[in-house]
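ugh ok so i messed up the first submission bc i forgot one of the chains. this is the corrected input, ALL of the components this time, i swear. 915 residues overall. if the numbers dont match what u have on ur side tell me asap before i send this to the collaborators (the ones from the other lab, u know who)
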Amino acid sequence: MTDRPDAPLLQVRDLSVIFRARPTTPGAPLQPGDVQAVKTVSFDIVKGETIALVGESGSGKSVTAMSILQLLPYPTAQHTAVSSIKLNGQELVGAPEPVMRKIRGARISMIFQEPMTSLNPLHTVEKQIGEVLALHKGLGRTAARARVLELLKLVGLQDAEQRLNSYPDELSGGQRQRVVIAMALANEPDILIADEPTTALDVTIQAQILALLEELQSKLGMAILLITHDLGIVRRMSERVCVMTQGEIVEAGATAEVFARPQHAYTQKLLAAEPKGTAGRSVDGLPELAHVEDLKVWFPIKAGVFRRTVGYIKAVDGVTMTLRAGRTVGVVGESGSGKTTLGLALLRLQSSTGLIRFDGKELQGLRQKDVRPLRREMQIVFQDPFSSLSPRLSVGDIVGEGLKVHHIGKSGDDRRALIDAALREVGLDPAARDRFPHEFSGGQRQRISIARALVLKPKLIVLDEPTSALDMSVQAQIVDLLRDLQDKHGLAYLFISHDLKVVRALADELVVIKDGKVVEQGPATRIFDAPATAYTKALMAAAFELKVAESAAVRQ
Amino acid sequence: MSDLTISTPPPQDRLFGLLAITPLTRRRIENFRANKRGFWSLWIFLTLFVLSLFAEFLANDKPILVKYEGAYYMPIFSFYPETAFGGQFPTEANFTDPWLRERIATQGWMIQPPVPYTYRTINYRLDVPAPAPPSAANWLGTDDQGRDLLARLIYGFRISVLFGLALTLVSSVIGIAAGAVQGYFGGRVDLYAQRFIEVWSGLPELYILLIITSLLVPGFWTLLAVLLLFSWTSLVAVVRAEFLRGRNFAYVRAARALGVGDGMIMWRHILPNAMVATLTFMPFILNGSITSLTALDFLGLGLPPGSPSLGEVLNQGKDNLQAPWLGISGFVVIAAMLSLLIFIGEAVRDAFDPRKSLR
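and heres the new structure output, hopefully the right one now
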């Protein structure tokens, strides 16, 4: 570390965390089955600075953060004897529980990734925040209420007075995260640990929350330890960065310096891994593969004794678009905007009204039985590679299921050859055939999902956020794979994503959706270069510059 | 590219060297074993059950093997008239007849089962009026008609377990099918079926069973059908819940997108999830089935008169309080059987508990 005039607020030295498979005495050597999640990590946090801990999932960054608060499941988790975490000179490793309790939430507080699960669904906003105040400051009810209101205003929650009695499920994701931040700030901590604070949020909300954190830091002068996998956030927020992989800090330094001249091979790989490039090819003259016109998916809202339909939730409301062979249409929008529903409706996996034409055939009005043979031509890859593969079937069974259903391949050997070819095509060893999904990483599983779609030789694949659940470097690989497969087989993609960087890398045409309605539609290059509507502009600003747009196009 | 490397697969795990099993199954078996009480209960129960399947060799009034005048006879398997052993009548030889026993003893020998009575053999040579207390001839004594109690308990245990298994199996199949259809299709099908089940289970079960059994000639299969009328509903709720949850799984949607039919999706993709809940319930349903048969037998509405049944032994115990061996033996057998099954059920439940990791 560089010499700093001010003494560090928090000093982490040679921190190691070992998860024991079996109970052992502390200090025992590693046994088979034990996992060393963090290996001799050292860093400092200085008053008022933002330091980022960046790495992919499983790199040990969250475990490091939890060690600071001593919140790991001891004694399954153990620190080595030399591990030391000092807060203003006070040792935290092995500190007695009453001491830690005074520190947690008062001097060091934490905000978590998932704002829904970090709030108690049965307590009102006032009660949740009031609890922290009562615990550490012993505030009475009226005093606490005033302070809660002040905090809610500080974190910029709209209509703070009315929100006091709201329950978490009445708030949106962004509002919830504001409440969580208010809770963390209640006792004016010296250090705020933010563990992936925006990962579960939409890009526009993400920009708002990041702006809020910056503003609060300058107001309150606290230090922020930001844990994230998103390099864009690191670049925008932090002064210093520590790059972690496999439990070790491989590179540390000033953010600008690390980004400009990465020294370690892993940092270089991580920086190179951001999906790059643009597609934006012309679609003129290409044959139409699928076309939807005025597609509507309305869910009725029923009320009263007779369950009369009193209104509709318009998930998809009058979308018209055309997909052409060998080209990609990107569908972007915030969560809840109807992107996924649109994809499902196109495949007739969701009932809808309006025209759906696929390969010259009308799909609307066909019975499910008659749609089934067509499923061979149109496939889907889902977002979460962990839940979209049946855990009880082998990879060969999963990939080969469609072949059996559509009676492709005469014999078992024929089918096995097709399965092997598909696995090879997505970059997997055909030996994977006899293995089960849980033996594979997220990226490998997503490849299996793609192989399952690909083995049927479809003309259209709907890709429903296929990269959102994956690490950055794996994302880039999947994007490359998808691009190669499209060129090779002339596939049409409907690419649904909220991640505009990935969309830019793949989409030729773009459909921007808000509340089920198309806001803007056209060639991807044109929209990315010159977005016409305020909403698209806000979306782009949030995604590429992590900035909050001035207009009121996005909600809180 | 580290993403693409695949380590060599571990060797295929096999149960007893035969059945290929997944690591998940292996973990469940280990969990089951870790519950010592349940594990030993399973072995004790299996031993008793397999032994009772061969009850004819354990308790029978016919010898297993007879050597008479140089020829071998197996009366357990074939019919031999008394004339074959030099008797007068063409009817089946009665090997409890002292005259015949003496004749065989002089001309050859015979191997008898350890309990030389079957469930309906009446011991006419009792020194005391029936029910006779335990003695060297009747180890657990006899019932009030002079039949050997041990023989009746062995056969009664067998018929109880077989009946319980059959009832459990059939009611599970029906219950799973009904639950699966309701959960998978949901909507109106689910609504109407749920209301029907609610009304159905609101019927006074015992009275209806009493009425039906008094109308029909009771027998193993009629009783099975009658008890099935009400026992099939026990699994519906669990399976329905699993299917309601399962139909929204991403891999179920993926299967639908592949064009897989409804039946296949239910069978291949969702049913394995529901099986965990089902298997956990199974030992308890088995217990319930056995208890309901015993209850009907106790009331005299169960198996036809003369059949070996544990309920009937209990009834006799109630009627003959001066002969406590009846009630005590019946109670011990039923209590031991039900306890063993409960212990097994607990171990099965532990084995399938995902939160319980191997220590």
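quick check: The interface with chain B takes residues 347, 349, 371-376, 379-380, 382-384, 387-393, 401-402, 405-406, 427-429, 431-432, 434-436, 441, 443-444, 449, 452, 456, 474, 477 of chain A (CB under 8 Å). that seems consistent at least. Residues 104 and 135 of chain A are 11 Å apart (CA to CA).
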